[in-house]
Amino acid sequence: MYKLRRYSQVNQLVEAQNLTSFMRRLNYFKFLALQDKKMLEEMRLEKEKLERLQYQQMIKRQDLGIKARKQAEAKAQHEYQKKKEVARLLQVQKDKAYYEREMKALEAESRRIADYLRELYASRSNRMSTVPLGSGRFSSPILGGTMTSPYGWRVHPIFGTRRLHTGMDFGVGAGTPIRAADHGVVLDASWMGGYGKAVMIDHGQGIVTLYAHTSAFYVRPGQKVRKGQIIAAVGSTGYSTGPHLHLEVRKNGSPVDPLPWFR
Ligand SMILES: [Zn+2]
């Protein structure tokens, strides 16, 4: 538009018939050129304004997008945490139910063993020795093994429930030989519920040792054993969370702290 007009202006100037007319036209064209310049400037400003506006709107849209995305992310994260918490609670309930079942099974088996021993002591055909068979001093059933959990009351770290640990544990690898703590006669070597595969040795005078969660027996009921003799292998049978020997000392059927016999 600008160029086109300039061309026609030159033509009109050339065609001017006198100076006055020429000067008038020149002034008029100068005015027009000025107007054009102003208009162009206005258009440029208008264009810039529009571009600025578009840019601002784009930024606003982006900000809104980021905000919406952040909100969605926060919501998803919150829902995920909620689901995780529910799953955790369900797992705890499941674990607790399993733990309680396990505890009840072990307690039931412990009572059954106590009843069984008391019946033996009370029966006429008493298989139990009334004279001491052993030395009265125990040697470790695990050669060089140390006790990892003592006899006594335990509070569950998560459930907070109290439970009597009826023996002492030796946490050692599966297959580790288990030795008779003292001389005696094998009373039983069989599956004993929550105790898994277990061996009981009569040491006379109401004292019996019990070796639980074993993986294999090397003795049979009625067999005489000597202190330190290998009688079984460590395992994780019955209610057990990993390979270990659970050793119990029974006095007239009831579990007592084995520690005094090791002193
Ligand atoms: Zn134990």
From TrEMBL:
Keyword Coiled coil: yes
InterPro entries xref list: Cell_wall_metabolism_enzyme (IPR050570), Dup_hybrid_motif (IPR011055), M23ase_b-sheet_dom (IPR016047)
Cited Pfam families: Peptidase_M23
GO molecular-function term, one example from the UniProt record: metalloendopeptidase activity
Domain of life, source organism: Bacteria
Alphabetical keyword list: Coiled coil, Signal
Coiled coil found in the keyword field: yes
Residue ranges that the Swiss-Prot or TrEMBL entry lists as coiled coil: 89-119
Parts of the chain that traverse the membrane: none
M23ase beta-sheet core domain ranges (all copies): 164-258
Matching PANTHER family: L-ALA--D-GLU ENDOPEPTIDASE, PEPTIDASE-RELATED
Protein name: M23ase beta-sheet core domain-containing protein
Annotated organism of origin: bacterium (Candidatus Blackallbacteria) CG17_big_fil_post_rev_8_21_14_2_50_48_46
